[in-house]
Amino acid sequence: MSPTIQNNTIFLSPEEDARLRKNFKDRLQKCRELSGQRRIPSDPQSLRSQVIYADLMSDMQPGPQAQKDGAGLIVAYAVGTPYPPCTVPLQNLKPMGMHELRIDTHHRGRVLTVRRWGATPVVKLKICSWTVVQEVREEGEGGGEVDRLEVGLCKDVHGVDILESGEVFKVLEPWFTVGEQGELTIRIDHRSDLVCIDSTPSKADKIGRLKNTRMEVTKIAREYKEEGNAALKQRNLPLVYSKYTQGLEIIGAAKEDIACDLFRNRAHVNLLLDRLDGGKSDALASLTGLPDQKHRELDGKAYLRAGTAAYQSGDFQEAKHLFEEQQRLLPGEKEAAARISKTEQRLKERETGCYDFKKLKASLLLSSSRHGARVDAASFTRNVEIKPSPGKGRGLFATRGMEAGEVIMAEKSFCIVWANEEEALTSMTYDFRDDRIRVFPAGLCKTVVRRLIDNPSQVSKFLDLYGDYRGTESKGQSGRDGDRGKAIDVFQVHDVVARNAFGPDPRSASAGLWILASYINHSCLPNSEKEYVGDLMLLRATRSIAAGEEILHAYDLSSDYDTRMESLMRTWGFSCDCKLCVAGKADSEEVRSKRRELEREADALIEKGEGSSRLAVVKARRLVREIEGTFDEERYKGLPRMAVARVQKWISEAGKR
Ligand SMILES: C[S@@+](CC[C@H](N)C(=O)[O-])C[C@H]1O[C@@H](n2cnc3c(N)ncnc32)[C@H](O)[C@@H]1O
């Protein structure tokens, strides 16, 4: 049997399960045995052959642990022991050489500088990339040693593999260990631990020699601006960002026109890169406040960019204010009025929960691939609040009474990856911490990491969500090296995604995360259900809900008690003790197994597609009676009999045919 994934559950044959575990455990064992030993210098030629061969093979096989699942390949990888990212400023780290590396050791307080070696390719696998790097020594010391450098899951920067995005890298607090391929390697898990250094000769050096005349500084800043504009035409966004930033670094704090131009242009590229925090702050920093027409137009543009960043962050009140500022500077501008009206629409949705669903659905049909299945709408959350839920951590509670069918709340996704998008990746993970193999939305995890690195203001609300590993500091690490932002703990992100992500469509590999909905606890007897319009999640009451009552949702709807328990424990790490589970637990193993068998028989009858033939309906009715007979009347009084739900629905539909 090949592995298959269904409803968050992975089905592996015992042999496949054992083989996977053995591979991962062997790697761990090798790590332990070699721990603390000195690194033996690698043979450069043999490394070169390996990387060239692996690069050729990478198109055909995404990694040694990939499993065929019939439809394609499921990549498997191990989640190891968490460790924190480096939070020490770069200038405070002590340089080290490759000869100092010890196996399975985090070299805290140290930094290793490397460059991609010769013309070696980068091997790009789904869950990691690797290449061969050479140590960069102090000037005049000749070529350094070479070794492997491997970057884990979060390896792409806006579509560019990080190892391909530069030549020279600083590896912060290097970890030398056994990598995904079973080879000894310098391994990066936290993307913020790898810093790409611009190795092109700096114009700043030239400035130093020219004794910093102001005219020269302005001229060079203009050159950076032109180079950035040229890179924008080529759509090389990381390069555009870097050019404008270098221009700004040279200008310093001076409020000259060129500085305002660079900030305004960088605001634009930030928006293209979905860096909303930077988009807003750069746009506001570019304001000149000068009264002539030219500067009013430029400032109007800046307010438009700042407003767009606020709008896309869901900050509609601020967006409205910024668009109004744009209108004040450029009174005749029609676009500004349209933006204000759109923002007012969002504010109304936020206040009332009234949406134009027809329009939203129509927009989904028209949407481009970049914003595919994402709607332009505001979240409506005023009917709920987060409060402690005894025995379950925190939960979501109703602030007022609601009727069955009413929308309790509507929430835009924090992050979503649809199955048809390039970032989509469902993988199997083997977690050393609890020895479990799970289905994991690795593509979503990667996208969240990028989002957090790019938008530090969103870190704390994400890391406040429930996750087993809390990191060394639950709100993300504070700023480091100025513009480099927060160091994001990838292990912490992994654990939050693992416990809070949902698939809007259980039949597909789409996965998303909704911040407020992540506080909803599970019950097999829920009072709400989710539906989706694109990435807008609507939570509806399935029965009347009193003010102050906890909102509960069924994470797993398996009718069989054992299957449900296993899924809740494996994916969310808890056992449910609702009334239905208490009743189910009291059933004998014999009764549970008989019920399972009858339910399978009913499913087979439905799937055989015998339509509504009288005989099939008679057979189905008999099965309903037999399944119902397995429930103890007294114990299940007032409780749903989930095992008959599907077949009963089929019978009632058959009656209509
Ligand atoms: C999506 S979060 C829900 C919010 C979470 N309670 C919190 O404090 O942030 C899922 C986690 O909540 C807890 N949980 C949810 N439903 C539960 C239940 N019925 N009983 C016990 N724990 C539950 C589990 O720890 C689970 O992994």
Automatic annotation (TrEMBL):
Tell me which SMART domains the record gives: SET
Q: Respond yes or no to whether keyword Protein biosynthesis is given for this record.
A: no
Ranges of residues in domain SET = 382-556
Per its UniProt record, what Gene3D superfamilies does this chain match? SET domain, Tetratricopeptide repeat domain
Top-level taxon in the UniProt lineage: Eukaryota
Keyword tags: TPR repeat
Segments annotated as TPR repeats: 300-333
A Pfam cross-reference name = SET
What is the protein's name according to its record?
SET domain-containing protein
Task: State the species of origin.
Answer: Hyaloscypha bicolor E
